[in-house]
């Protein structure tokens, strides 16, 4: 089947675990996710199914929004609650104003060092494999952008927050670095992704809900409507003849989109058949074809 599902990932499963669960539930081999979530994290995990896995390239740089809790008083080797404490816990006294002040220092484009327990590679080896062996892990800083970082509340040694970041940003590193600035150590105690690109918790379903919908033959009800995908790219609905040309890899004329670099091409309201790129004037060539020409001879949904 072709579609996009937004899963509300539970804690304790890796993103790849979710992929495997969906493959079994849907009996579909072509399943992928759009952005890894740590095992302990929960929330929005967009999944692409069937031919729509080809759209993953458009989501590499999508921004994410999270809510969570930072615990101050000690750091951990993983920068989250799953790791070993780097030292004895300190008694800390935090004020909301001071934690907000520190958080504001991270807003904008920053150089961030990824956690040693991460998938970043050192000479071809994932850093977490080296860290597990207690080997020295030295990762280079990368530029990321923290677009919003709001401290919602401070209670005892914990601060709840909301953050919106660019792709590639480690919220665990933000927590760790805040502890360094406050000279008391800190780690990420909990994390929930509330949005990734255009996908939000309002779109999300549990794995149990997916299984129930699949058994009832109601997958269309819980899959995201294709018209909601890639909102930054305009949509065009074409007739059968133009659709057949596009699905055969041929260039077509779309005069109403002369100012657009790319368009999403639909046959009917729900069948996304291609992403086309303007090559000259009003001529568009299919960059990615998501449907085969023979299928267009059958009736389609309106």
Topology:
Layout: E1 3-9, H1 15-26, E2 31-33, E3 42-49, E4 64-72, H2 96-104, E5 108-112, E6 121-122, E7 125-126, H3 127-132, E8 142-155, E9 158-165, H4 171-182, E10 186-196, E11 199-200, E12 204-205, H5 207-215, H6 219-222, E13 235-237, H7 240-247, E14 252-253, E15 262-267, E16 271-280, E17 283-289
Parallel strand pairs: 1-12, 3-10, 13-15
Antiparallel strand pairs: 1-3, 2-3, 4-9, 4-10, 5-8, 6-7, 8-9, 10-11, 14-17, 15-16, 16-17
- Overall geometry comes to elongated
Taken as a percent bin, the fraction of beta residues is 25-35%
Q: Tell me the radius of gyration.
A: 23 Å
How many β-strands, per DSSP? 17
Helix share, percent: 10-25%
Measure the end-to-end span.
Answer: 19 Å
Task: Describe the 3D structure.
This protein has 7 helices and 17 strands. The protein is elongated and about 70 Å long. It folds into 3 domains: 3-62 and 198-227, Pseudouridine synthase, CATH 3.30.2350.10; 64-196, 2-Layer Sandwich (Pseudouridine synthase); 233-297, Roll (Archaeosine Trna-guanine Transglycosylase, Chain: A, domain 4). Strand 6 (121-122) and strand 7 (125-126) form a beta hairpin. Strands 1, 2, 3, 4, 5, 8, 9, 10, 11 and 12 form a 10-stranded mixed β-sheet that branches. The model is unreliable at 294-302 (pLDDT under 50). It has helices spanning 15-26, 96-104, 127-132, 171-182, 207-215, 219-222, 240-247; strands at residues 3-9, 31-33, 42-49, 64-72, 108-112, 121-122, 125-126, 142-155, 158-165, 186-196, 199-200, 204-205, 235-237, 252-253, 262-267, 271-280, 283-289. With 302 residues, it is α+β, with helices and mostly antiparallel strands.
């Amino acid at each position: 089947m072709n579609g996009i599902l937004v899963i509300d990932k539970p804690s304790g499963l890796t993103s790849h675990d979710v992929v495997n669960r969906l493959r079994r539930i849907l009996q579909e081999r072509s399943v992928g996710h759009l952005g890894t979530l740590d095992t302990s994290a929960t929330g929005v995990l967009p999944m692409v199914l069937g031919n729509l896995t080809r759209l993953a390239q458009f989501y590499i740089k999508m921004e994410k929004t999270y809510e969570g809790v930072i615990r101050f008083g000690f750091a951990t080797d993983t920068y989250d609650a799953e790791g070993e404490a780097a030292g004895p816990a300190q008694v800390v006294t935090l004020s909301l104003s001071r934690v907000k002040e520190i958080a504001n220092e991270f807003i904008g484009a920053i150089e961030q060092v990824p956690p040693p327990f991460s998938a970043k590679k050192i000479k071809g080896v994932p850093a977490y494999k080296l860290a597990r062996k207690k080997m020295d892990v030295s990762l280079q800083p990368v530029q990321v952008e923290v677009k919003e970082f709001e401290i919602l509340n401070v209670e005892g040694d914990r601060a709840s927050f909301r953050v919106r970041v660019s792709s590639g940003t480690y919220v665990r590193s933000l927590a760790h670095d805040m502890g360094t600035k406050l000279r008391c150590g800190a780690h990420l105690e909990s994390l929930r992704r509330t949005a990734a690109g255009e996908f939000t918790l309002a779109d999300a379903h549990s794995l149990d809900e997916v299984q129930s919908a699949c058994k009832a033959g109601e997958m269309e009800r819980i899959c995201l409507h294709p018209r909601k995908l890639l909102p930054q790219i305009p949509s065009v609905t074409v007739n059968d003849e133009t659709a057949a040309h596009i699905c055969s890899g041929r260039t077509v004329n779309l005069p109403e989109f002369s100012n657009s670099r790319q368009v999403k091409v639909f046959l009917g309201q729900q069948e996304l058949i291609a992403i086309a790129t303007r090559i000259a004037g009003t001529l568009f060539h299919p960059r990615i074809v998501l449907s085969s020409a023979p299928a267009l001879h059958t009736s389609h949904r309106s």
